[in-house]
Amino acid sequence: MQQFLANATYDRICEGISVEALDGTALYVTAEFVEPLQMIAFAIYDAPIEGIHEREWEIVRLLAEGDSQAEISEKVGITSSTIRTYLGRAREVVGCKTNEQMIAVLSKTNTLASSPNKT
Questions:
Q1: Interval 70-81: pLDDT, tens
Q2: β partners of residue 19
Q3: Local structure of residue 51 (DSSP, 8 states)
């Protein structure tokens, strides 16, 4: 179960945890439940997030520091479209649907502090 949580995406965790109530109705977990499970799984394994490239980490760190996507685009000299692509890839690796969820998971697990090539 721990390995599943550490490597699963948000949607996969929701599928895996959905249950059927005694009366036959389906019950599903919410983001408020899934995010802590992901954080627990990352903490258990103390695993670095693999699959996020150096440039993507740079963009994620700038976003976590409070820069807007437009500010990041200007700072690093790439288009807003490329910023969105990098953030999308990073969200996919972390298993989050939103940038806010991704930053929360990475911050609470101290992954941002130990990400590659931290400036």
A1: 999 999 999 999
A2: 27
A3: S
Cα(34)–Cα(37) distance, integer angstroms? 5
- Distance between CA atoms of residues 18 and 94, nearest Å: 21
Copy the structure tokens of residue 67: 């820069």
The dihedral over CA atoms of 16, 13, 52, 101, expressed in degrees to the nearest 10, equals 170
Query: Could you give the residue ranges of the DSSP H alpha helices within 54-118?
Result: 54-64, 69-76, 80-94, 99-108
pLDDT in tens, 22-31: 566 666 666 6
What H or E segment, with its residue span, contains residue 19?
strand 19-20
